[in-house]
C-alpha cells in the first residue's frame, strides 16, 4: 500500500525519475518497491536542514527513521481487540526479520558522506509545494505551540494530585520510614546492633525462607551474642560487604538457578565478586568471617555452581571461612534435610570456635506484633492482591518481569484426562493490558490461592474461624523494626493471610515441627511432635503415610479436637513461606497471537497448588464439579477476579528463543508438557512458511507415556508437518505403551544418531531441550556419546563442544525438577 501525500502531480515525475535509475535519488528514496516516500515540502525541508547540519549523518539518520516508520505504519496492520494474524504487505518484510532488515537497509543507505546527504536534500527541496504543504505547516506550528505551553497555559499540575495516589492504609499506623534506608550493610549492622548477617540469594523462595528462619533461631538458641538479621543481597551495595568488621559474622545462603546462574536478586553481588583479578586488586576482605551454604540440584550439570564460585572469590580476596561449605541437593527432595544437617554443624562451630553458649531450651521471641483493629474499613485493607514483584533495587527484575495484572481466561480445555492425571490448555487475553508484551519462549506466572478446605481447617484448629475477617495490623518489634521487612502487606485480615499470602499447603519441615511443640495444647501433643521432629526416621514414616503433611493437618493429627490457642499468629507469619507464583512456558507464538498467551498445565494429583487452582477454574468455566473435592474462591480478593474467569498473572522474559534466521535447522527434545514452547516455535515456523519465507529442517523428539493417553497436541503436530511440507520430523518415545519396551527420548536420539549429528555438528542446528532436569541430563549424555562414537572425539572435546554450544546459545534448556 502506497502512502499518498496529497500532491498527485509529483507522483508521475517521481516514478519516472526512479525508472531512469538515478543512483543518488535511489539513495534518498531507498528503493522503489520497498520505500515509495511522498513527503510534503516542510517534511523535505526538515530532512534537508538535518542533512546540512549533520556532518556525520546522525541527524539525517533520525529523519530517515522517521519517514521509514511512517511508511511501515502504512504497510503493517496489527490486530485490535482480536486474535487475527499480523499481515505485512511487502514480501521482503516479516515479523521475524523486520527489525534486522530495516536496520541493515537504512544503515547501508545513509552511512554516506555528508556532502551526498546535502545534495539529496537539495533535490528534495526542488519539489513543488501544494495545499498539503501549508496544511502540514499549520499542523506543525500548532503542535509546537501546544507542546511549549504544556503545563504553563493548559493542563497545569494540580497541587493536590498526589493525594489521589496515597494509600489509605498509610494513615492508620502502618510502619513507614521518613529516612532513606541505607545500602551500606556494615552501617546497617552497626545501627541495629546485630552481630550476624544472613545474606540470601533466592529464586523460588527456599533460600529466603531458610535465611529468615536462621536469623530468628540464632538469638533464640544463643541469646544476644548471636543477634542476627536476614538480608536480601539486592538491598545492599556489594562493596560495603568489605566494611563488615571482624567482630561480625556473614552467612551466605545462595541458590543456583537454571544453567548455573545466580538468582535474580544476586546479580549485582555476583558481578562485583566475580570481577577479574585486575579489577579487584584494591578490594580486601581480610576482615570478613563467613560461612556459606548452597542450594542446587545434581540433575543439573552446574550443580551448586554459584556457591562454589562465590566462596572461591571470597577466599581469593582474603575472607576467612569458618567451616566447610554446605550444599543441598534437591534431586531427591533432600534440600531441607541437607540444610538441617549443615545448621547443626554451624551451631557446633559457633560454640567451639566463637565461644557461643547455647541455651538449655530455645523459646520463641516474637519479631512481629499482630493486633486486631475493628475501626478499619474494608477499603483500607490488603485483601490478597499480589504485590508487584519488580524490585527497584534489582536491575534483573526490572528487565525480566512485567507488572502483575488481572487476565481473563478465554478458554480452558482438557488435553487428556486419565484416572490419575489431567492436562489443560489455557488461553489468556492480554488485550486490556498493552504494557504486557511477550515473546515466543517466555514464561507466564500464575498467582494461585489456597483451597477453601485448607484455609477453613487452619482457621478452625487455631480457633480463629469467627475472627477471620477482622482487620489486623502487623508491625515489627524491637531490633526487628529496623532490620526486618514485613513479610506480608498490612493492614489485612487473617482470612487474606491464610488464603493469599502464606504457603499453608506446603509440607512442614522437621525443625518447624520441633518449634511447634512448645505451643502444644497437651503434653501428649508435645511429646508426639518432639518424637517426629527429633528423629529423621519417624518424620520419613509420617510423610510416607500421609503423602503430604501441611500445618493444618499436622496440628489436627497431633491433637485431634483441640484448639491451638497458644500458637501465635505472629509465629506463623514469621515462619511460613510466602505464597509464590508458579511459572509456565508459554505455548503460543507472539507472532501468531500477540494478544493471546496460552499455557499447558499438568495436574498430576490433588497436591499441586497452582495446577489444581487452574483445574478448578477450567471446571468452573464449563459448570462442572470441582475435581479432587477442592474448591477455591475463584472470584478473588474483593471480587477482583469476578465472575471467576480471571487470574492474577505476570510475564517473565526467557533466553529460550528461536534463532533469528528462519532457515536455521532445529533439534527439539521434549517430554510431557515440555512440548509447550515447541508448539509456539513450530507455529512461528509455519507462519514463515505461509508467507513464502525459507524454513530450516527440524526434528522434534517427544516423549510421553502412551500414544492413546497423553500424546498432547497430536493433531496440531500432524497438521504442522503437512504445512511445513516435509521440513518437520516428529519422533515419538512412549514409556508405557502396551506390549512395547520402554523407550525414552534419549533412546530415540541414539536411534537417529546420524541425522542428529548431521544437523547439530555439520549444519549448525540449534538444540532445545524442555522438560525435567533428569531428562535433559540424559539427552546431553546421549548426544555426547554419539559425538564420541561418530566423530571420534574425546571426553574433553565433547565437554568443550557442549560448553561452547551453550555459551553461544546453540544449546538451550528450559528444565525443572
TrEMBL record:
Gene3D superfamilies hit by this protein: 3.40.50.360, NADPH-cytochrome p450 Reductase, Chain A, domain 3, Nucleotide-binding domain of ferredoxin-NADP reductase (FNR) module, Translation factors
E.C. code: 1.6.2.4
EC top class named in words: oxidoreductase
Secreted among keywords: no
Region described as Disordered: spans on this chain: 1-25
Any GO MF annotation of the entry: flavin adenine dinucleotide binding
Cofactor(s) listed in the protein's UniProt record: FMN; FAD
GO cellular component terms listed in the entry, alphabetical order: cytosol
Keyword Acyltransferase (UniProt): no
InterPro entries for the chain: CysJ-like_FAD-binding (IPR003097), FAD-bd_FR_type (IPR017927), Flavdoxin-like (IPR001094), Flavodoxin/NO_synth (IPR008254), Flavoprot_Pyr_Nucl_cyt_Rdtase (IPR001709), Flavoprotein-like_sf (IPR029039), FNR_nucleotide-bd (IPR039261), NADPH_Cyt_P450_Rdtase_alpha (IPR023173)
Keywords: FAD, Flavoprotein, FMN, NADP, Oxidoreductase
Occurrences of domain Flavodoxin-like (ranges): 196-347
Every FAD-binding FR-type domain range: 402-659
Catalysed reactions, as listed in the record: 2 oxidized [cytochrome P450] + NADPH = 2 reduced [cytochrome P450] + NADP(+) + H(+)
Pfam families assigned: FAD_binding_1, Flavodoxin_1, NAD_binding_1
Entries under PANTHER family matching the protein: NADPH--CYTOCHROME P450 REDUCTASE (PTHR19384:SF108), NITRIC OXIDE SYNTHASE-RELATED (PTHR19384)
Descriptive protein name: NADPH--hemoprotein reductase
